Amino acid sequence: MKKLLLLMAALLLVLAGCGQNNEQAQQEEPAKDQEQEEVTLKVASLIPPMTEILELVKPKLAEENINLEMVVLGDNVQPNTALASEEVDANFFQHVPYMEEFNRNNDANLVPVTPIYFANYGVYSKEYASMDELPEGSVIAIANDVSNIDRSLSLLAQHGVITLKEKEDVYYTQADIIENPKNYQFEEVDLLMLARMYDDADAVVMTPAYAAPLGLTPKSDGLLTEGIENDFAITLVAREDNVDSEPIQKLAEAMTSEEVRTFLEENYDETAIPAFE
């Protein structure tokens, strides 16, 4: 009997040990799975505050096992080219009309995820303090892509500087100007050249992102400003094939958080107005 009791005790110890090992293995397995589930999300961008917002949300995404890798590119064409060719998973630098024009010209399938902020477009002049002071025949520099030509002309028409005919196509062009009382000359230049034109043109129409390095803000220095009643919010953009994926949706959630809203309100005031609820 004594031997039988000892044998049963030994058997119970073995079974208990096996149970502990199984439990430990079960606890370790999810940890391994969790490590394996980490994904890298590549997002192309250009300049602050776009890049700053991505840096801000990076730790939050890390908590979700998403490694946000920001890819800073040098012009306003590369981010869309990289996204369309699947070199990156998303980009954050443009408004929807600009994205739509890229799609049309490149047979691409980029789609908006969510708007993040309104970049308050404005007219700036190094020499003149108001549009009334701008003399007849002045040169006004505007971006040369069709969506921003439309945006620039619409801003000027909004304030009565020019008159545009009823829109017949997707975008306004200079051919749609029917009244230009002061015979202003509109010089179309690459978007990234606008800040340089501040020294050469009589006035420049540009976003705060390009005005800020010159020490200019819409509120303090803009001869005219756009506001938020428009379709030009800077937007997180993905592709049709990945827009509904969990990492992209987690990124969108992080970029429309109260933390981002507070960051914009405290650091960019009216130059980057939150576009999300």
Provide the CATH top-level class of the largest domain. Alpha Beta
Task: Output the strand order for the largest sheet.
Answer: 2-1-3-12-4-13
On the 0-100 scale, what is the average pLDDT? 88
Number of helices: 10
Total count of strands: 13
Relative helix content: 40-55%
Work out the radius of gyration: 27 Å
Give the count of structural domains.
Answer: 2
Structure classification: alpha/beta
CATH superfamily of the largest domain: Periplasmic binding protein-like II
Low-confidence stretches: 1-16, 28-34
Overall form: globular
| CATH architecture descriptor name of the largest domain | 3-Layer(aba) Sandwich
Distance N terminus to C terminus? 77 Å
Instruction: Assess the beta-strand content as a share of residues.
Output: 15-25%
Elements, N to C (H/E)? HEHEHEHEEEHEEEHEHHEEHHE
Biggest sheet features:
6 strands, mixed
CATH topology of the largest domain: D-Maltodextrin-Binding Protein, domain 2
Model description:
This protein is of the alpha/beta class. The chain has helices spanning 2-36, 50-62, 78-84, 96-106, 146-158, 194-197, 208-211, 218-221, 246-255, 258-267, and strands spanning 39-45, 66-72, 90-94, 110-119, 122-124, 139-143, 163-164, 177-179, 185-189, 203-206, 224-225, 233-239, 272-274. The model is unreliable at 1-16 and 28-34 (pLDDT under 50). Helices cover 40% and strands 23% of the residues. The strands form 3 sheets. The chain has a 6-stranded mixed β-sheet, with helices on both faces. Strands 9-6-10-5-11 form a 5-stranded mixed β-sheet.
